[in-house]
Amino acid sequence: MNTLKKTSRITSDMVPFFDLKAQYLSIKDDIDSAIKDVIDSGWFILGKKGEVFEAEFASYIGSRHAIGVGSGTEALHMGLLSLGIGQGDKVITTPNTAIPTVSAIRFAGAVPLFVDIDPKTYTMSAQALEGCLSKRDRKAKAIIVVHLFGQPAFLDPIIEIARRYDVKIIEDCAQSHGALYKGKKTGSIGDIGAFSFYPTKNVGAYGDGGLCTTNNDEIAERLRLLRNYGQKDRYHAAIEGYNSRLDELQAGILSVKLKKLDGWNERRRQLAALYTSLLDPSKADTPFEVASARHVYHLYVIRHKKRDGLMAHLKDRGIATLIHYPIPIH
Length: 330
Ligand SMILES: *Cc1c(COP(=O)(O)O)cnc(C)c1O
Prior knowledge:
Oligomer: single chain
Bound molecules: pyridoxal-5'-phosphate
């Protein structure tokens, strides 16, 4: 068929792992006009599109502030710095995550400590967290909870433990845009939510981008300084900062895509439900959905006893798969 020929650039990948071209074609007019607006305006960094997108995103998530930054990694890194995490401090996270969760801890000069995941949800085990924090030499200042694959971590016990040990919480929401935990959006619950707009995320830019959400005015103020050379006023640096901003082109593109997010997530959920209904539970561990949460299926991840054989079988039929993640970070 004609259409098939046009969209499959990689012929061995008849069902590619993702297809950003198809998504673009479905929103082409709005994207093109957003890009043209920015170029016509002649203003590319920290301008109106960014402000509009930050307001839209804060309102979507239900947090007081949204601060656009250069990437998800930078959202985590500067998020840690804005909480006062620095040289030698300990930060707890899970090793079954994308590498940047841990790179960000090291960029802040801090030391990552790993705790295990819950085998059903693949997110942080509250029991393991408590076990770690209760050891004297493992006293951490912050934790990064990863809402992995789009599944919100089971936050209630984690928050209770974190409060008891006076530990700050960053939610790594790079894979969970729009996911709900007990009716609240991920990114609105901890001290900071760190989002990535890497092109393949549930909301993706056409380049790099990221964002921090917070309800705390001081943290928001510090993040605004950190992302822009530490400058309060032009050429007056209040603190040592970075160059890590969400640019106007990306913000304009993301405003268009944010309006589509709920529909796209719903479609992901429908497809996930279809896969789960068709897979034999005695052969494949399909994703577990926590009743009080809304999984947004950034990835549909299963466990299978004959994983490599299954991958080869699917590849033969033109269906692309990947392993998330082949090497645990520890
Ligand atoms: C993608 C991702 C990041 C990093 O985001 P970038 O925008 O690529 O820097 C961090 N954590 C997780 C869990 C991710 O999936």
